[in-house]
Amino acid sequence: MQAANPRRGYILGLSAYIIWGLFPIYFKAIAEVPAVEIIIHRVLWSALFGALLLMVWKHPGWLRELLDNPKRLAILALSGTLIAANWLTYVWSVNNGRMLEASLGYYINPLVNVLLGMLILGERLRRMQWIAVGLAAVGVAQQVWQVGSLPWVSLVLALTFGFYGLIRKQAPVKALPGLVVETWMLVPIAIAWLLFNQTATSAQPEFWTTSQAWWLVAAGPVTLVPLVCFNAATRHLPYTTIGFLQYLAPTLVLLQAVLLFGEHLSSSTLVAFIFIWAGLAVYSVDAVISLRRRN
């Protein structure tokens, strides 16, 4: 087994979260393509690029293991549907001026994971975890009170990704083979969509002479490269460190939304962020204390 290399782990982990955090720039570059169509191509090119990666990085026995366990295939079909819904919501939010809500959703996600662990897996929450979840709930409730409606983009992103992670725990397949299988299961739907939508932007021959066509093709590596970096980083860094690094991506999205794309950060939204940041701070302190006690 390869010895842990923290320096390499930090480089890989930071690379993954910086790429994820800069996704809005990529999706803005293809904003003329409808969100659904972007996801269709993300599925197709991720499936192709993922298959090529599997040929390069061998994962012995993964296919036989899946074929011998139909339950895992069913679970991956469900998780693939969830991640596609997450992708679609995220792309739509970026290209419709809702990046702040997207950022909020990914800040909420760790706390949603804690809550799902309690409600579905029967895990017991420590006192500080209850406080963290409560603070996040206050932040969401404050948004509802001020805006008059649920921040649905934030909640859909947090819940779909939370349930995605939860379901993937039930199918212990390595990340790359798992994602490749998930995307290949969606390929027939993607192809059918293209066949039945002959007026789609990418269905026009002239589209493939534009630079946006290459941006769509790039959806494969753009999706999988940070995932490969992330999984490599987890082999070199403690998972609590990975947990802290994950806040980098929504922070970058928040900064781009306000500074680069001119989204308005209202006082009510800022208050919601403050409550959720406070919850994350409590959650992080609790994680550190728990780790030290175990050691």
TrEMBL record:
Pfam families: EamA
InterPro entries: EamA_dom, EmrE-like, RarD
Keyword terms: Cell membrane, Membrane, Transmembrane, Transmembrane helix, Transport
SUPFAM superfamilies according to UniProt: Multidrug resistance efflux transporter EmrE
TM stretches of this protein: 9-27, 39-57, 73-92, 104-121, 151-167, 179-196, 212-232, 244-262, 268-289
Location within or outside the cell: Cell membrane
Keyword Transmembrane among record annotations: yes
GO CC terms, sorted: plasma membrane
Residue ranges of every copy of the EamA domain listed in the record: 8-141, 155-283
Keyword Secreted: no
Similarity-based family: Belongs to the EamA transporter family.
Entry protein name: Chloramphenicol-sensitive protein RarD
